[in-house]
Design brief:
This protein is mainly alpha-helical.
Length: 71
């Protein structure tokens, strides 16, 4: 899948949440986890490995949009 823009970035985002917890930004970590859970749970803007048609960028853009909307 290298170079195809279809990789699922969820693992790296959740690793980022762990880093936020480590630097004691627990609210931000919780918000990131909740947003990932919502987007994946809805199943509409997800990468092909999760049954969707979204690109890595589209999935990430949706997460960022929601995070910005809820901050």
């Amino acid at each position: 899948i290298a170079g195809q823009g279809i990789a699922n970035p969820t693992a790296i985002m959740l690793a980022g949440a762990l880093m936020l917890d480590y630097i004691e930004l627990h609210d931000k970590a919780k918000q990131l986890r909740r947003t990932v859970r919502q987007v994946v749970g809805e199943g509409e803007i997800v990468t092909p490995d999760l049954g969707g048609r979204a690109s890595t960028t589209e999935f990430t853009d949706e997460l960022v949009r929601r995070l910005e909307q809820n901050s």
